[in-house]
Specification:
Elements lengths: L1 E2 L2 E2 L4 H8 L4 E2 L11 E7 L2 E9 L7 H8 L7 E6 L14 H13 L1 E5 L15 H22 L14 H16 L5 E3 L8 E3 L4 E3 L2 E4 L7 E8 L8 H12 L3 E9 L10 H9 L2 E7 L1
Parallel strand pairs: 5-6, 6-7, 12-13, 13-14
Antiparallel strand pairs: 1-2, 3-4, 4-5, 8-11, 9-10, 11-12
Helix pairs in contact: 3-6, 3-7, 4-5
Length: 290
């Protein structure tokens, strides 16, 4: 099933067969998800890890759970997202969102995500950027990182930011610097909903980026921001892939995740999943240590 360093996209027949696998409750409850079921499955194409869990209305965690439970990271995974327990929630998706999400999760993480919606379709969109787009994205993010460090300062040099008391304050500080970098480069901040807004429809839940900027003059036409303040250290993937699917479905782009660390807090090492996202798609994780 391997093709170079990447996995071949599994056929609909493979997905359908794996989706019928018997899964059992996970022995632990990763990330507080109580109804996770999983199993290692032998298939003619090779070994697979299969897991399933209902959507959490308040947070997206399935990708992170799959990465934590998968016994080996070189084994492909089928992750089945089931409807939330709240029966009044309706599955609503932006056009192209599911295919973009599936494309990013498969290309970077080797996880085939399907919805337990009766169709169980797996049609991943191509999301791996061209070398030119990656170079432009990295150059732009490097400039953002430089400005963030200059604006924030450090404990050794003197912190210039008012120390944020919560994630909302950190988000506002990061967003202001990003806007100052992006606006002269032709990017406009989008605050409304719809295809280019920061709010969008995920899987049985509403989702929201901490900022979205768009430009019709760049081969990275959309940028989404996710800002963290000492939070979600165990679940660094799902929201990022959510946002990447959103901007990809809107025409392409990337995601910048800025992790703000208060004095005395040491950033954790990047996980395998974080490294794979950065290597494969237009995602960057930046650390700002105050």
């Amino acid at each position: 099933m391997n093709h170079g360093n990447r996995l071949d996209v599994p056929s609909p027949d493979v997905i359908a067969m794996l989706a019928q696998s018997e899964v059992v409750p996970a022995t632990n409850k990763p990330l507080g998800m109580m109804d996770v079921r999983c199993a290692t499955v032998r298939h003619p194409t090779g070994e697979w890890f299969v897991c399933s869990a209902p959507q959490d209305a308040g947070r997206a965690r399935l990708l992170d759970v799959a990465m934590l439970l998968r016994p080996r990271q070189d084994v492909p995974c089928l992750a089945i997202l089931k409807p939330p327990t709240e029966s009044d929630r309706v599955l609503e998706l932006t056009n192209g969102y599911l295919a973009a999400y599936q494309g990013a999760a498969w290309a970077a993480l080797g996880i085939a995500v399907i919805l337990d919606d009766g169709k169980r379709a797996f049609e991943p969109a191509p999301v791996v950027p061209t070398p030119e787009a990656r170079a432009r994205f990295n150059l732009l993010v490097d400039e953002i990182h430089t400005e963030l460090r200059a604006d924030a300062g450090t404990a050794e040099q003197g912190t210039r930011w008012l120390l944020p008391e919560d994630s909302r304050e950190a988000e506002a500080l990061v967003r202001l610097t990003m806007h100052h970098v992006l606006r002269p480069r032709g990017y406009l901040r989008k605050v409304d909903g719809g295809a280019l807004g920061k709010t969008y429809k995920g899987f049985w839940r509403g989702a929201e980026a901490d900022g979205v900027w768009t430009s019709d003059k760049s081969d990275v036409p959309h940028l989404a921001l996710e800002s963290k303040l000492n939070e979600d250290v165990e679940a660094p993937l799902c929201q990022i892939v959510d946002h990447l699917a959103h901007v990809t479905a809107a025409g392409g782009g990337g995601v910048v995740c800025v992790r703000v660390h208060l004095p005395g807090r040491v950033p954790r090492e990047r996980t395998v999943g974080m490294k794979r996202l950065e290597e494969t798609v237009l995602v960057r994780y930046l650390d700002i240590c105050l």
